[in-house]
Input
Amino acid sequence: MAKILVTGGAGYLGSVLVPCLIDAGNHVTVVDNFMFRQSPLNQLCAKGNFDVVRGDVRDEGLMAHLVKEVDIVIPLAALVGAPLCNADRIGAESINRDAVLLLTRLLSNSQRIVMPITNSGYGIGQPGKLCDETTPLKPISLYGRTKVEAEEAVLTRGNAISLRLATVFGMAPRMRLDLLVNDFVHRAVNDRALMLFEAHFKRNFIHIRDVANAFLHAIDHFDVMRDKPYNVGLSDANLSKLELCQRIQQHLPGFVFVEAPIGEDPDKRDYIVSNERLEATGFRPRWSLDAGIAELIKGYRMLSGSSHANI
Output
């Protein structure tokens, strides 16, 4: 059993990952500021191997206390997504990057870090060429830049693994509607129509439960995977926005989408990704894109309102 500290553990990813870590027999402490005023970890309070702290990951005194006895730190705390980072640029740099730099100073050499960043750090790729972990990182947003800088610090410090996540989708106790698949399925269910800007832009996708499984895999295979970054995505889901809509339409035949003749998408990411390095360690995703779309359709029969978006 490992003692694990998860920062931002009440967020979209944490609300799925933390129960998995606990079920695997680990003792997990979550520190979170609960900025979205949701309580997705309520069901864990009866667990003896779970603890939670309301606090700010930029508080050096608090973090120095929390890291004393842990074996592994998983820094999930972040302002996630370009719009949220642009709305709070100081918060983006101080949480996404500086709070991780603080951890690298506070942790001993024997303590491990398994951290996520976004594969949006690849920015705009070359047409038809897969981005792998040797591809130069050229983030085009403040969000991407702060995460890339945090990854560099963690891997330079050593005794760490970085997971470069594809665009995540799927239901979670702390739900997000602003992620691309989640957003498009929500619009297909509720509006039954969508206007696409720059529909040819491509990216890679991964189900949130497979992201949680990737963290468990990294912990179990730490010695083999140590001190490297790994792309985490579905190798059969390097899709354009148009192709994604066509997949959704197979589940919801009444869904109509139209390519806009003019206008731009503020998110300029456009790349395809190779996940071979992670797959070579034995990791295999369990959730297909189609299974995730079916899951989201059921979930959106229950959700209403805009309180589940990051911005």
Summary: The domain at 3-169+206-232 is CATH 3.40.50.720 (Rossmann fold). The chain has two domains: 3-169+206-232, 180-204+236-299. The radius of gyration is 19 Å.
